[in-house]
Amino acid sequence: MKTPFVLGFLRPKIFLPNGLHDEERSYILLHEQTHIKRYDHIIKPAAFLILSLHWFNPLVWVAFMLMSRDMEFSCDEHVLKKMNSDMDIKKSYASSLLSLATDRHILNGSPLAFGEGNVKGRIKNVLNYRKPRFWLLFFSIVIMIAVGIGLLSNPVIKGKDALGQIADSNNIPLSEEASLELPETSAAEILSDLSNLQFSIKRDQISDDDRETVVTFGKAFVNLYTGAIAEQKAVTFRNYISNDNLLKYTNKMLELEQRKELKGEFSVIFGLENEFTEAEFKQLDKNLYYVNLPFSNQGSGMSFKMLVQTENKILKIVDLYFGNKDGVDTIVTGHPAVRKLHDSKRWDDQEWVDSVFDKLEKIEI
Fold it and tell me: Would you place residue 76 in the very low, low, confident or very high pLDDT band (cuts 50, 70, 90)?
């Protein structure tokens, strides 16, 4: 090879052809020493190995060629910077590039050859090179530092987004301070997100290990139901309730309680952002759990009770009760002293279902 090159990994050596004059030898040596100081003799073979593994990806080929070009450009500029980059040096350096150019572009991992890598482009870059001004370098460094700090920082988002209520149940703290403000999510979008949530567990039956998931499931339902009342929005509970009778009852109860809310007939406050206290959790059967979720909104306390089981590893409510003294469920299903949640087949009992819906029909709002 007639061009100078670097060869070796642990102890790289610089090989020079015969016939170089002293000045030419000096900046060629400086060029190759810059490669060694920057570990280019290791980086380039490693990049070539990656290219060999991803030979089918055109983007990897482009990345490798651009990396090789930038290596040579950078070393050329370093030499010119060290030698004051006057026009005589530029011309001499460009002449050496041309005379020592390889016959073809070397697309491999080694060696690092002085005359390889887009010689025409390198000559243009050399002849047009200007030593960067201090203020430009300083400004670039400041910009890079600022961008780096911005990327490394962890912004705290003000307020609670559509799933912020769910984060609460997973003990994920949400700071009240804000370093970044995002557009507020509309109530309709939050309700839609809650309607589309689905909660699953790993096994066919609920266990004590699934308590956190079950409680999160219950909190999501409470936020969906009370949020729909406060916002006067129609929602679907299909992902939470599978029994058709209970689903029909819940939809009717929501409709009636929305009317009561409009007339101001409730002594409690409904909303999307409920605050929950510790849940009461009891196992009633192998795959049946009773959960009591006390919660409040703007200081107005309520309690939601539910029976939960799984269907194909998906959590479902098989019975529920809010138990507000003004609530529709208290009127049609009984006082909490009487209304006990323990039977997973309650809403399969047609006599019970008929009596509930008869009472619903008699409610005048």
Answer: confident
Cα dihedral across residues 77, 78, 82, 88: positive or negative:
negative
Structure tokens at 149: 């700090």
Supply the DSSP symbol for 180.
Answer: B
What are the CA-CA distances from residue 2 to residues 14, 15, 96, 300 (Å)?
A: 13, 10, 12, 87
Token pair of 225, please? Answer: 């139901």
pLDDT in tens, 303-313: 899 999 999 99
Burial of 3 (0-12, 13-18, 19+ CB in 10 A): buried
**Distances in whole angstroms, Cα of residue 112 to Cα of each of 6, 15, 29, 101, 349:** 5, 10, 12, 13, 83
Distance CA 55, CA 145 (A): 35
Peptide bond into 336 cis (omega under 30): no
- List Cβ neighbours of 120 (8 Å cut-off, separation of 6 or more): none
Q: In this structure, what token pair is assigned to residue 158?
A: 């003000």
Q: Is the torsion defined by CA of 181, 185, 186, 191 positive or negative?
A: negative
Contact between 350 and 328 (Cβ < 8 Å): no
Give the HSE-up count for residue 145: Cα atoms under 13 Å, Cβ half-sphere: 6
* Contact of 96 with 82, CB cutoff 8 Å: no
Task: Evaluate whether 363 touches 332 at the Cβ level (below 8 Å).
Answer: yes
Smallest CA-to-CA distance from 292 within 300, 270, 284, 236 is with: 284
Q: Each residue of 219-259: pLDDT tens digit?
A: 999 999 999 999 999 999 999 998 999 999 999 999 999 98
Residue 153 gets which letter from DSSP? S
The separation between CA 329 and the C-alpha centre of its own chain, rounded to angstroms, equals 40
